[in-house]
Amino acid sequence: MSKRIFVTGIGTEIGKTFVSAVICEALLADYWKPLQAGELDDLDSLWVRDFISNDVSEFHTEKFLLSEPLSPHAAARLDGIKISLDDFKTPKTDNTLVIEGAGGLMVPLNDEGDMMIDLIPKLADTVVLVSMNYLGSINHTLMSAELLKQRNIPVMGIIFNGDPNPETEEIILSYTGLKCLGKIPMADSDIKEFVKEQAERLKANFL
After folding, report:
1. Catalytic residues, which ones?
2. pLDDT digits over 150-201, tens only?
3. Can you give the residue range of the structural domain that contains 173?
4. b/e code 32-67 from CB counts within 10 Å (16+ = b)
5. Checking DSSP bridges between strand 30-32 and strand 97-100, what pairing results, if any?
6. Are strands 97-100 and 4-9 parallel, antiparallel or unpaired?
7. Are strands 59-60 and 126-131 parallel, antiparallel or unpaired?
8. Number of domains forming the structure of the chain
9. What is the pTM of this model?
10. For residue 131, what is the domain's CATH number?
C-alpha cells in the first residue's frame, strides 16, 4: 500500500526540500508541494526534479502559487486569494507520495485560524520531521514533536539535516521517543550525486 508522507520542519530554511528529494529518490516516490510562497521562478518542485536521478517519480502541480515569500495567510491576502482547508485534495497516484509543507507546523494558512498542522491529516498518513542543529533547535524540535503528539498525528521519525551535534540529537530523541530516520551532513559534492548517495544510505529506514 502506498504511503502519503508529509515532510515538515521545525522552522524555515531547515532543508525540507532537500530531505524531500532524498526521500523521493529513496522510495522512487512522487512529489507534491501543495503551497509555494515566493520563489516562483525557482519552484521547490523543480529543484527536487532536477536533483533526483530516477525516472519514476512524478511531480504534481501546486494548488497555490503565491507571489510573495511570506506566511501563506499574508501572501494570499496580497494576491487576493482565499485559502481554505477544503481547497486541498491529495493528487491521485498509486505511488508513494512525498508532500512538502511550507514553513513550520504553526504557519497560518488564513485568517480563520487554520494552520499548516491542520492540513496534515487531510493529506497525509504520516510525518517526517526535519530538524537542524542550531541554538534553540532543541526547543523548536521538542515543541514541534509535542504538537504532533497532541494532535495524534503519526510521525515516522526525525531527520537531522546539516552539521551534526550528537548531544543535541541525543536529548531530542530521548525526550520525544521518536525514531532517528537519518542524519544528513552538509553536501560536499555534486548535489545530484549527493542526493542519490543519501537516498541509498537511508532507504532502509523508510521501508
Report:
1. 33
2. 999 999 999 999 999 999 999 999 999 999 999 999 887 799 999 999 999 9
3. 4-206
4. bbbbbbeeeeebbbebbeebbeeeebebbebebbbe
5. parallel
6. parallel
7. unpaired
8. 1
9. 0.96
10. 3.40.50.300
